[in-house]
C-alpha cells in the first residue's frame, strides 16, 4: 500500500530524515516510536506532502506520490491525517466538521460552496456512530472534551473514505483511558475497513498493545523494525538513546482550519456548512 524508498528531508543544513525506506501493507496498523525530534512527524508530513521531500520517492497504492496540484489533490483524497491538536473547526457542529472530510472528493463548485449530497450526510452520521458520537452530531464542536474532539477527527478521516490514515501523536494530550479508546477506534478502522494506519506514538505500552508492527526512529533514521514483542530493553535504548521520555510537554495549538463562509445554501438533499 505504501512504499517509501530512500526518503530524505532537509531543512537548510539540517537533515531531518536520512535515506528512509519503508513498506506498509494494506490494512496494517503500524506504530512509529521515537523521541521528540527523531523525525516521526516529518515522515508523516512527507507522506501526504505537508512537507515536500528533498529526495527519494513515495508510492501510495502503487502510484507515485507527487507534490504538484493534481498529485496533491489525489494524495489528500487517499491519505487522511489525524493531528495531535484535533484541527477541528470550533464554531461548526460535530456533523459539519465530519463532512469536511468529503470536500476533497466533491466537484469544485460544490466543494467551494460546501454543499453535501444526502448520501454524504448519511455517511458522516455513520462515521459518528462508529466512534460513538452520533448523539453529538448537532452540538458545536468547541463544547466537546479533548477526547471527543479527537474522535471527531477520526470520524472526519473515516468520512474521507481513505486508503491510508496517518495519525500524528493522536493521544499525546489525552488520559490513559481516553487514549486507549481513541487507539481502539483506529485499530477497528484498520481491521474492519482495510485502512492502512501509520500512528506516531511516544508510549511504548500503547505500541505493544495496538501495533501489528513497530518502526523505531532515532536521528532521522530507522533503527528498528519488528513485532511489538521484540521491543526489548536493548531495542528501546536504540530508539531512545537518551532514555525513555516522560509526558510530552504541551505544544502551541495548531492553526485553525479555515472554512470559507458559504454564500449559498440548497435545501435537502444537500447541506451547506454554515455558521450557527
Write a brief structural summary.
This protein has 276 residues and is an alpha/beta fold. The protein has helices at residues 40-47, 69-78, 94-99, 108-113, 118-130, 146-159, 176-193, 204-210, 233-239, and strands spanning 2-11, 14-24, 29-33, 55-60, 63-64, 79-82, 115-116, 164-168, 196-201, 213-218, 221-226, 271-272. A hairpin with a 2-residue loop joins strand 1 (2-11) and strand 2.
What does this structure look like?
The termini are far apart. Helices cover 32% and strands 24% of the residues. The strands form three sheets. A six-stranded mixed β-sheet has the order 6-8-9-3-10-11, sandwiched between helices. The longest helix has 18 residues, at 176-193. Residues 246-272 have low confidence and may be disordered. The protein has nine helices and twelve strands. Helix 6 packs parallel to helix 7. The chain is of the alpha/beta class and 276 residues long. It has helices at residues 40-47, 69-78, 94-99, 108-113, 118-130, 146-159, 176-193, 204-210, 233-239, and strands at 2-11, 14-24, 29-33, 55-60, 63-64, 79-82, 115-116, 164-168, 196-201, 213-218, 221-226, 271-272.
